[in-house]
């Protein structure tokens, strides 16, 4: 039986946010920054690459390290971190990696002959006189480079614009020549920052960070993270460096704005910054984005959802799901790991995760793992106190009459099982104190058809949830 695809699409012990997905030679390659489990800052690890065949998005392969922090010029001690990168194929057929490190607000470039080989430093994006972009008087700081190459021209998009910062005008587009470094058209603003957005159509969704660029037909899609942090928005134009109009939100990593199963402003996950892009794979389009785990901003994981284009080119916002890479609902039978939860919340609503995780550890559930960074430990949900709810979407169920869960922790109570977050309780599974993972079960009938599943803890103490099993 073919393996199923989950969210996150990579193993639960891997932390690659800011994904830029590309199809090269019938494989999907993921280029992103690299967080650390239980990290204390963003992007602490080296760049690595994963890939999957276009016809099986459950079969991801680790390609290895493609660029180390110590490959950055004057960073022999690894003190500077590698922020979100992007990759493009140059006119010479080689692969060019664009990045900004945490010490300098300039764009560096590395190059490789293959999509996932070891990249070598190539140079800095610069003006014709040799001055590095970002270091000339009047230049705005460079951040989060995105690139698109057409013929001998490469379009570079950059920017980081906090709310209220009048020194940052918005997302910039710069045109590079065939050497992939030299500027042939100087930066222009393509999406405004918050102080300069009046009358632009971007109000309320102004550019913050995370630019990405794609072309579909004759239309350029500029994807970015807005000032509200949790959403990936997009703007479109028929020209790569002007005329972009705000079109909407593609995905939010706490499902705000979604009204198909809840009030639109109700958060259903602990969100945070967001970064990703869209890509066509085997005739279908997907959005790649990331979620936050371990109760902090610093252990982010990649997720993906199928998207649709309407006749006018707009993209309706999609829900977060557990089955984004599966091309449909998961089989409504068997055991599933709890880390694929796409909804996670409790009675005390909170749309954002915390930078340090200090308050989340006391109050809110979180997806985490045992061991240290790099240990291939399966993730689970910890700190499920009274009212904590984990939601999973979607499953194609038929004849399910028994549900098992695997739990540990200092807890005494029960888990309610439902098919909607506010729906009827279909049954309860009693749980108790255990220092090791222990299975509990109950006879619970799940309606036939495509369902979401929600597990809500009610009781004393704090439970951890490793998995659930659907049985006939």
UniProtKB/TrEMBL annotation:
<dbReference type="InterPro" id="IPR023296">
    <property type="entry name" value="Glyco_hydro_beta-prop_sf"/>
</dbReference>
<comment type="similarity">
    <text>Belongs to the glycosyl hydrolase 43 family.</text>
</comment>
<dbReference type="GO" id="GO:0045493">
    <property type="term" value="P:xylan catabolic process"/>
</dbReference>
<keyword id="KW-0624">Polysaccharide degradation</keyword>
<dbReference type="InterPro" id="IPR052176">
    <property type="entry name" value="Glycosyl_Hydrlase_43_Enz"/>
</dbReference>
<dbReference type="InterPro" id="IPR006710">
    <property type="entry name" value="Glyco_hydro_43"/>
</dbReference>
<protein>
    <submittedName>
        <fullName>Alpha-N-arabinofuranosidase</fullName>
    </submittedName>
</protein>
<keyword id="KW-0378">Hydrolase</keyword>
<keyword id="KW-0119">Carbohydrate metabolism</keyword>
<dbReference type="GO" id="GO:0004553">
    <property type="term" value="F:hydrolase activity, hydrolyzing O-glycosyl compounds"/>
</dbReference>
<dbReference type="Pfam" id="PF04616">
    <property type="entry name" value="Glyco_hydro_43"/>
</dbReference>
<keyword id="KW-0858">Xylan degradation</keyword>
<feature type="site" description="Important for catalytic activity, responsible for pKa modulation of the active site Glu and correct orientation of both the proton donor and substrate">
    <location>
        <position position="144"/>
    </location>
</feature>
<keyword id="KW-0326">Glycosidase</keyword>
């Amino acid at each position: 039986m073919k393996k199923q695809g989950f969210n996150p699409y990579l193993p639960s012990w891997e932390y690659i946010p800011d994904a830029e997905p590309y199809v090269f030679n019938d494989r999907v390659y993921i280029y992103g920054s690299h967080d650390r489990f239980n990290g204390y800052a963003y992007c602490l690890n080296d760049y690595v690459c994963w890939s999957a065949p276009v016809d099986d998005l459950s079969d991801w392969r680790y390609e290895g390290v493609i660029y180390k922090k110590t490959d950055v010029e004057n960073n022999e001690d690894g003190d500077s971190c590698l922020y979100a990168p992007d990759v493009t194929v140059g006119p010479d057929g080689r692969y060019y990696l664009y990045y900004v490190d945490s010490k300098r607000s300039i764009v560096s470039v590395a190059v490789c002959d293959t999509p996932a080989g070891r990249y070598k430093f190539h140079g800095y994006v610069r003006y014709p006189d040799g001055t590095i972009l970002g270091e000339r008087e009047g230049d705005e700081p460079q951040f989060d480079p995105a690139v698109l190459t057409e013929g001998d021209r490469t379009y570079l998009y950059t920017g980081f614009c906090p709310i209220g910062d009048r020194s940052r005008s918005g997302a910039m587009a710069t045109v590079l020549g065939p050497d992939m470094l030299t500027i042939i058209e100087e930066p222009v603003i393509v999406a405004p920052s918050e102080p300069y957005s009046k009358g632009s159509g971007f109000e309320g969704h102004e550019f913050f960070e995370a630019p990405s660029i794609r072309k579909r037909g004759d239309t350029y899609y500029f994807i970015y993270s807005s000032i509200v942090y949790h959403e990936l928005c997009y703007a479109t134009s028929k020209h790569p460096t002007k005329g972009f109009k705000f079109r909407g939100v593609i995905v939010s990593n706490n499902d705000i704005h979604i009204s198909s199963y809840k009030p639109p402003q109700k958060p259903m996950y602990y969100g945070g910054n967001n970064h990703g892009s869209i890509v066509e794979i085997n005739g279908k389009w997907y959005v790649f984005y990331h979620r936050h785990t371990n109760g902090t901003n610093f252990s982010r994981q990649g997720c993906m959802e199928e998207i649709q284009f309407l006749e006018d080119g707009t993209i309706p916002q999609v829900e977060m799901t557990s089955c984004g890479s599966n091309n449909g609902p998961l089989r409504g039978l068997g055991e599933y790991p709890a880390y694929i939860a796409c909804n996670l919340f409790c009675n005390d609503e909170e749309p954002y995760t915390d930078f340090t995780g200090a308050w989340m550890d006391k109050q809110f559930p979180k997806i985490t793992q045992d061991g240290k960074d790099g240990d291939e430990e399966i993730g689970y949900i910890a700190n499920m106190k009274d009212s904590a709810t984990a939601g999973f979407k979607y499953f194609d169920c038929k004849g399910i009459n028994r549900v098992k869960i695997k739990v540990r922790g200092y807890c005494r109570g029960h888990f309610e099982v439902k098919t909607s977050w506010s729906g009827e309780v279909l049954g309860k599974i009693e749980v108790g104190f255990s220092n090791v993972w222990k299975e509990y079960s109950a006879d619970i009938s799940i309606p036939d058809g495509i369902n979401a599943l929600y597990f809500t803890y009610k009781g004393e103490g704090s439970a951890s949830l490793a998995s659930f099993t659907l049985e006939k």
